[in-house]
Amino acid sequence: xxxxxxxxxxxGQYQAVLEESEGKxxxxxxxxxxAALLALNRGKExxxxxxxxxxxxxxxxxxLTLKTNFELRFALGxxxxxxxxxxxxxxxxxxxxxxxxxxxxxxxRIRSAERAxxxxxxxxxxxxxxxxxxxxxxxxxxxxLANFQDADTLCHASTLSKVLATSPxxxxxxxxxxxxxxAKYGEGVTFSKNGKTYHxxxxxxIPPYEEVAYRQFLSRLDRQLKDPSLSSxxxxxxxxxxFELFPEPFLREKNDETLYxxxxxxxxxxxxxxxxxxxxxxxxxxxxxxxxxxRKAQVETVLNQAERLKV
Length: 311
Known about the structure:
This protein is mostly helical.
């Protein structure tokens, strides 16, 4: 009788799955063994097993192997390794369009996972100041910033102002500014980002994803892009670009909405390598193709220069 791993997993019988799959190397046994190890917080063992049999697992079920590999990397906080894995998988033979689309969206998935990874809670004022002003790396600083509530932000506002002025990381400075803005901090701050120096009051800023114009833009993007994969990639690209620009506004003029609609649809097609007549689409939107190409190049430059976390 075949072992019903799915039922055992559904009942939380993870140890039983490990016992039944011990020493077995068929892909089905391995996939469930890896899942059971992860459920038991034995992620390192699961990752080791995944890497050992990665090629045979990929041959049996490419998409599940990709999802398993990167879920493990994200759970372990191994983002540099995830980027390296993405390059390895990119050189594997073509399997299907679905797999290709997943592979092309990996850089965005990894970057999103970096920002959404598990973070420790806010500690004492002394420790927070030490971690924020003298972190071992940007990730440590972001780990503290990401768990701040408004009360924490106002309590540590002077430290966050120093972070804005001294941190070499644009990611850290942007998160610090977002926190101060959301907490309606009313004192002036000074900092530099992307070659510009800013003197502003955080409470006067609108966080990038809360701008009415930006939300309207995303709604229009959804209406324009019917394909879920294309829409998802375009959304991620737009969110990353908006984050990198902050505190600069995303849309400066009314025509920018149509221009960016074309830009992010074009970039999404590039990521997924799907056919699209960008010149024709620009003209249909009433845009100058030359102007559209220039704006696309500007956006690509910002995205390509975006800081990566090194953990």
